[in-house]
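[audit] Reproducing an earlier prediction to check determinism. Same input, same settings, fresh worker. If the tokens differ from the archived copy the diff job will pick it up downstream; this log only records the rerun itself.
[audit] input (419 residues):
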Amino acid sequence: MEGQQLLFGQQIFTVQQVTRIIKDRLTSDPRLVGVAVRGEISNFKHHGSGHMYFTLKDAQSRLRCVMFRSDNMRLRFRPEDGMTVIAQGDISVYEAAGDYQLYVRALVPAGQGELALAFEQLKKKLAAQGLFDPARKRPLPLLPRRVGVVTSLHGAALRDILSVIRRRFPEMPVLISPAIVQGEEGPESVVRAIELINRCPDVDVLIVGRGGGSLEELWTFNDERVAWAIARSRIPVISAVGHETDFTIADFVADKRAPTPSAAAEMAVPEARVLRHHIRTLLARLDAGLRRRLEAGRMRLDLLSRRPALSRPWDLIAQRRQQVDDVLLAAARAVQQRIAGYERRLAFLAGKLDALSPLATLARGFAICRRQDTGEVVRSGRQVEPGTPLTIRVQDAEIWGRAEQVVPAAATAGEGSKS
């Protein structure tokens, strides 16, 4: 490495030269190659490029870390801030920033298995999205037209399922959609098998599962893609993965969870012998019920046939006719009585009206005097003056004339007393 000599005999380096010296020292130290570091994750960032950047820290120090996409795509869990992990990789220097950092090749949770952590993380995520909601669970059909099965063609699970179905309901048709049930190809294979069998219109119940195995072997049924395929299935799904003590994400998403594949087959189809016995029992009860109802109807018909209304119906009709005549006669009498009452009241009112009639007054010698020019009735001498044309109405005629003189009543009364 070339450098200039100064007066004091010291060599001058560029920043890049110093950085590379440090990098060479770090990468040549065997203790920092493939080193495993335990710490708590902070400042975690999953970049759009797929690379992961974070810091490992403990109570005294911090260490920058990077995990490239080619390495982190194999992770089965998602790193989060606050999570304690063990990171394995090489210490080197990022020359552009002059920072030393750990280039992580592998990452596992500290104190907890990677698969166990991934299981809990996915379970929490899907629960929040409502895939485990009991309200979306569908009941299984009592008697399916056909049973669908998604599993390996070469596993014991398929043999157990078919054996149980043949024993319980030999005539039940079964449609098998084979799938790879473990390994990296497992999730996509199971998803395709579920989607394929959903295209068959006569499949009414679907068993999805496999036999027992380790957590790693059962991991296909803890995959998010499989969980969503089960949730989207139009056919009710029975999850039958592993043994009774094994639980997978598929168990929580499915409409029913069976402890074993054999138990799933028992849940999917009824036992034909029991079903036939139940049908015969129902038919016997139906027959007995119909007989009892028929006998009760016969007894009621016999009782009704003895009643006069049915044995001699014309007697009842004759009585009803006579009752109608009686009602009509009573109505006619009531109408006549009402008319007679109205006639008596009319005569009474006519007599009163006749007594008040002005014609009756004229018949007793009175007269009505009116002015011809205005037609008003003359009630006072002040309404008339000499020469006023008058009309005088008596009982049988009108007299026309003029007033010769208007004399106050007091004057005429005096003259009459003198005479």
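[audit] rerun output stored. Observation attached for the diff report: The first strand starts at residue 35 and ends at 46.
[audit] end
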